[in-house]
Amino acid sequence: MNRQNKQVRVGCGALIINEKDETLLIKRGTKAKNQSGIWSQPGGAIDFGETVEHAIKREIDEELDVTVKLIKYLCYTNQILNKESQHWVAISYLAEIIKGEPKNLEAHKHDDMRWFPVDKLPSKLSITTKDSTKAYLSSRK
């Protein structure tokens, strides 16, 4: 990868879990910044001057029109996407919805949105979501 003019970006997201031990995932569409066709936990970039926690809540509200409560930090992921010439350090939290019903407000970027049992996730899964799911399942033992 050519390192000239490349920057590491900081992102965030949440593994949203419901009372059935399912997680809410979005399928990235062709107009997403990266990883088209991949299922991912909701989240996005952290803005300058914004805390990680605020960014997660803001991104989820913008994408899904719900309010979440952050339960705990899960992990971080170095997500190096050679195909897209991107490097993201993504911080993941465990969260639960405390207000609203999820809606796909960014249909131009996300092709689908579904609840999946945490032990039966789709095969095309983002690295960040794999890492946060692994951290979540390890914390339950």
From TrEMBL:
- Molecular function GO labels: hydrolase activity
Which SUPFAM superfamilies did the record assign?
A: Nudix (SSF55811)
The cross-references to Pfam families, in alphabetical order and at most eight, read:
NUDIX
Reply yes or no: does the keyword Acyltransferase apply: no
**UniProt key word Hydrolase:** yes
Q: Output the InterPro entries linked to this UniProt entry.
A: Nudix_hydrolase, NUDIX_hydrolase-like_dom_sf, NUDIX_hydrolase_CS, NUDIX_hydrolase_dom
Which of UniProt's keywords are assigned here?
Answer: Hydrolase
Nudix hydrolase domain residues are 7-138
Q: What family does the Swiss-Prot or TrEMBL record give for this protein?
A: Belongs to the Nudix hydrolase family.
Identify the PANTHER family for this entry: ADP-RIBOSE PYROPHOSPHATASE, DIHYDRONEOPTERIN TRIPHOSPHATE DIPHOSPHATASE
Stated name of the protein: DNA mismatch repair protein MutT
The source organism is Candidatus Berkelbacteria bacterium CG10_big_fil_rev_8_21_14_0_10_41_12
